[in-house]
Automatic annotation (TrEMBL):
<dbReference type="GO" id="GO:0046872">
    <property type="term" value="F:metal ion binding"/>
</dbReference>
<keyword id="KW-0460">Magnesium</keyword>
<dbReference type="InterPro" id="IPR000086">
    <property type="entry name" value="NUDIX_hydrolase_dom"/>
</dbReference>
<dbReference type="InterPro" id="IPR045121">
    <property type="entry name" value="CoAse"/>
</dbReference>
<keyword id="KW-0464">Manganese</keyword>
<protein>
    <submittedName>
        <fullName>NUDIX hydrolase</fullName>
    </submittedName>
</protein>
<dbReference type="Pfam" id="PF00293">
    <property type="entry name" value="NUDIX"/>
</dbReference>
<dbReference type="InterPro" id="IPR015797">
    <property type="entry name" value="NUDIX_hydrolase-like_dom_sf"/>
</dbReference>
<keyword id="KW-0378">Hydrolase</keyword>
<keyword id="KW-0479">Metal-binding</keyword>
<dbReference type="GO" id="GO:0010945">
    <property type="term" value="F:coenzyme A diphosphatase activity"/>
</dbReference>
Length: 209
């Protein structure tokens, strides 16, 4: 193949994440609501009947379907389905940084103002309860940080003889930080906590500037 043909094939492409087709993609929303002139974040407690992460605290959202036009469309659709609200009541939507997780997921978070929160009717099949936390709490409270260590375990027929160092190869096994916020009787951790910390960092960065 000639260099000119390679350039012709590749010059207009837009880069993406290598192997993205193997990732599961999710759109989520951080709903902001006003209570007595103060901004609160709205959270869900996942139904204990859910197969995945029952009882965990999260933001509304879910996996991107083939019918979704975009990650935002997914976030709004899921929020509407889980909270029983009209999408027209979600306004001022802003994208945050997306997360490529260690477990084959790409999370696309958005934030927006949720109007008429008194009309929320949670879907009991997915949502155990909803609750609000003043944004001020997260602005004033640093999360507790704990480390999770990973161990590399190659499969039995791994070809050690083909790599430098063989069985003594240094895999540089990494660790991952898990964040925890404790608010009253609620424990907010995992990806939800990481998204909150990112959201807070953006607000504080803007304030400094």
């Amino acid at each position: 193949m000639k260099t000119s043909e390679i350039i012709s094939r590749l010059q207009n492409r837009r880069p993406t994440i290598l192997g993205r087709e193997n990732f599961r993609e999710f759109g989520i929303l951080i709903p902001m609501i006003e209570i007595e002139d103060e901004t609160h974040l709205l959270f869900e407690v996942r139904s204990k009947h859910m197969r995945s992460q029952p009882g965990d605290i999260c933001f509304p959202g879910g996996r991107v379907d083939e019918s979704d036009k975009s990650e935002l469309h997914c976030a709004l659709r899921e929020t509407s389905e889980e909270l029983g609200v009209n999408q027209e009541n979600i306004r001022n939507i802003i994208p945050l940084d997306y997360i490529v997780s260690d477990f084959g997921r790409i999370i696309f978070p958005f934030t927006g103002t949720l109007h008429n929160p008194e009309k929320i009717v949670p879907n009991p099949a997915e949502v155990e309860e909803v609750f609000q936390v003043p944004l001020r709490f997260f602005l004033e409270t640093k999360p507790k940080v704990y480390q999770v260590n990973f161990k590399v375990i190659p499969e039995q027929d791994f070809p050690y003889e083909d790599i430098q160092g063989g069985r003594a190869y240094d895999w540089n096994a990494r660790e991952m930080s898990e964040l925890f916020y404790y608010y009253q009787d609620k424990v907010i951790w995992g990806l939800t906590a990481k998204i909150i910390a990112h959201f807070v960092a953006l607000l504080q960065e803007k304030k400094k500037n």
